[in-house]
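Chain and backbone:
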Amino acid sequence: MRRLFVLPQYLLPQRLLTSVAGALACGEVLAGLLIRLFIRRYRVDMSEALDPDPSSYRNFNEFFTRELKPGARPLAGEAGSVLCPADGAVSELGAIDGERLLQAKGRHFELRDLLGGDGELARELGGGRFVTIYLSPRDYHRVHMPLQGRLLQTRHIPGKLFSVNEASTALIPGLFSRNERLVSVFEGECGRFAVVMVGAMIVAGIRAVWDEPGREGRLRAPERDFSDRGPTLAAGAEMGRFELGSTAILLFPPGAMEFEPGLAPGDSLRMGGKIGRLLPKEYLGEGT
């Protein structure tokens, strides 16, 4: 059954379908109907939304990227906490094996490929820790900072738009390093770390908070250097959002952090919850 779902993705016009979805999501025609159907189908909890009235949203995308009420996602307050960046479920997590990450059971992909060929950053993060978080359609779709960090650079990597659900990750080789994605590199207490926002079929766009106001369409410049002017974002601050859902991957250098005991694939997560802790600085570069 999984193969019956995955095989057509190689044949479908991914860009065309995604463009149509984006047009519908941004349009006001049928917006009210689409929103009501979506809430009913995925049992979305609108009581958490800053504006819980479905009819108040001008289009589907405005609803999908809705802001939550203050306090709806309290941040873990323990010093040194690594925060969950988004609502979702753990797809995979653990050690970066050399410069390879586990995509699904028995299937790996190259860190260098995920980062768009950045061998220096791949070597720096190799042997560190990663977690892949899948955002389902019903989830809150803003992505937040796991740690305080100053933005150094971003890289937009064009690619395919395969679905990122469990069936696809199990069967499509190198899925996350083949799909369109935005790699954001930060400097923090643990050294350089990265947040990778991975696109997928029907994802109408990936937005970052540092994008120019009013810029429409998909991701812009292939590579942007923020080393001398990058904003510093606090732990828990919004860094971007998915216009329709997808996946976020966190990458940490060796010896920087360890995950919470018992955290495992399939676990449900809420933005702001503690998923790990920073290790003392003397462990940096040693791996754990």
Observations:
- Confidence is low (pLDDT under 50) at residues 9-14, 16-20, 214-219.
- DSSP finds eight helices and 17 strands in the chain.
- Residues 153 and 225 are 5 Å apart (CA to CA).
- The chain has two domains: 2-64, 81-281.
